[in-house]
Amino acid sequence: MRFDADWMSRADDRILEHLSEAGPDTPKEMADSDRVRFSRQHINARCKTLVKYGLLVHLGNGVYDITRTGEQYLAGDLDARGLDPE
Hints:
Helix content: 40-55%
CATH architecture: Orthogonal Bundle
InterPro entries: WH-like_DNA-bd_sf (IPR036388), WH_DNA-bd_sf (IPR036390)
Largest sheet: 2 strands, antiparallel
Distance between the termini: 25 Å
Organism: Halorubrum saccharovorum DSM 1137
CATH superfamily: Winged helix-like DNA-binding domain superfamily/Winged helix DNA-binding domain
Order of helices and strands: HHHEEH
Number of helices: 4
Strand order of the largest sheet: 1-2
CATH class: Mainly Alpha
Low-confidence stretches: none
Shape: globular
Number of strands: 2
Mean pLDDT: 96
Oligomer: single chain
Protein name: Phage PhiH1 repressor protein
């Protein structure tokens, strides 16, 4: 069971799941995928928020990847309510 936080949106789980399965990707590529059904702009904004909370890392050139913390959240081993923005 996943424990999401008040600051999270419906897109966040889809973004994290996509990156966990597909590896590093850009918001444009995520928007074009069947898994993440949100606009590129929304995905980009959510990725920036997920970076602030340590669930994603920005690799440069608009490419994001999931962190160990993000993987722990997906596995239900981490309560996102306890995360503080960096």
